[in-house]
Design a protein that fits this description.
This protein is an alpha/beta fold and 397 residues long. It folds into two domains: 323 residues, Aldolase class I (TIM Barrel, Alpha-Beta Barrel); 65 residues, Alpha-Beta Plaits (2-Layer Sandwich). Helices cover 35% and strands 21% of the residues. An eight-stranded parallel β-barrel has the order 3-4-8-9-10-11-16-17, surrounded by eight helices. Strands 6-7-15-12 form a four-stranded antiparallel beta sheet, with no helix packed on it. α1 runs parallel beside α3. The longest helix has 17 residues. The two termini are 40 Å apart. The mean pLDDT is 97. The structure holds flavin mononucleotide. Flavin mononucleotide (FMN) binds next to β7 and β17.
Amino acid sequence: MADLSVQFCGVRIKNPVLAASAEPTLNAGNMNKCIEAGAGGVIAKTMTDSPAMRELTTRSKWRFLDQRHEVCHGKVPRAFSLYGRSGLALETPEEFLPEIRKTLKFAADNDAVVVGSIGSTEISGWVELAKQMEDVGVPLLECNFGCPHPKMMPGVRTGMNVGQDFNYACEITQAVAEAVRIPVMIKVTPQVNDLVGFSGRLLDVGAKAVTLTNRFIGFVPDIESGKPLIWGQAGIGGPWVKPLTLRWIREVYLAYKERVAIAGTNGAYDWRDIVMFVMSGADIVEMCSAVMVYGYEWLGKQVKGLEEWMDAKGYKSLAQMKGIAAEAALPYANMPSEKARVIEDACIGCKRCLDACFYNAMQDGGEKTHVLEENCIGCGGCLSVCPQAGAIEINVV
Ligand SMILES: Cc1cc2nc3c(=O)[nH]c(=O)nc-3n(C[C@H](O)[C@H](O)[C@H](O)COP(=O)(O)O)c2cc1C
């Protein structure tokens, strides 16, 4: 059987599927359910000393949206969006730390890991919260520099407001890393230009891992009422975001693979996605939205699916898969030459491929389509629109 365990910043985690810091990890009761379901661990809801960020959670709102970005009713499609807002942990640090303590005990009995997450508005606050988390006994600490909501809250300098200010983010990271002995992970916002350079700076000042990435800010009008859903701008994400996240995971992995641990989050729906995250360079994957749609059990199902798939493919460990797709990606200049070929016996002559060929390579041959080789550059548009499996091949020439 495949070994799903990971060494993450020196901490053994039994499998790479963790519940992300969010409502499924809002308190000990919720975190225990994630652990019971089979998650390798939980990242606790972000503990904060900001009353505004606690208060925001008392007014949390979200909607699952379909492909048209309209509110789902009952059936949530695979490519859904989670449009919503929520603040940080509801309790003050003094009230929240006992929740962590309870979860740590339950986690120890179930071979799971509890990661602390913190968010403050002052450097001294970050340091204080980090020390409190270390004292309570978490083996890893995540600093939330990615939460999108403070961007919509004038004067609240935390979350994405920190993640977009690289100098300030590095100051906090250095102060926290110097104040605690446990490894520090930095969860970043995707709404910046250069996550590779930023990640390098974070590692230079003491971070041991980066969490790539928190969610985006979006805006969704309801065309019937002419008003925005849930009253205005909100965080947005969902499985469709995955390629954007994987791009950063790949680039950060390739740039710092000797010294970075990567937690992937933002877009992982199921075990197939977890494989994609790992092949792009992630060590562990933090899941939220899919758990909010399907419940805690979703986590355990993905652990099982991952294990079965690895067994079927003959992968013995996650290390065998880690970063393999990241390494295999070619620069544009090195892409091989390809051409389309129509398999005449399979072609049904529907001519869909003619509409999708903008290089005029697909030719109407009456009952069958044929390829004008000198025009074909092997773009592959024809392959995607062809309704007949096996009627078009794209071959390296
Ligand atoms: C309702 C909600 C609350 C969240 N709260 C937090 C939080 O307190 N701290 C944090 O770091 N991230 C928070 N997140 C972000 C998630 O941890 C996660 O990184 C993000 O949703 C992307 O993962 P996903 O695609 O699996 O949903 C929250 C997300 C949602 C949807």
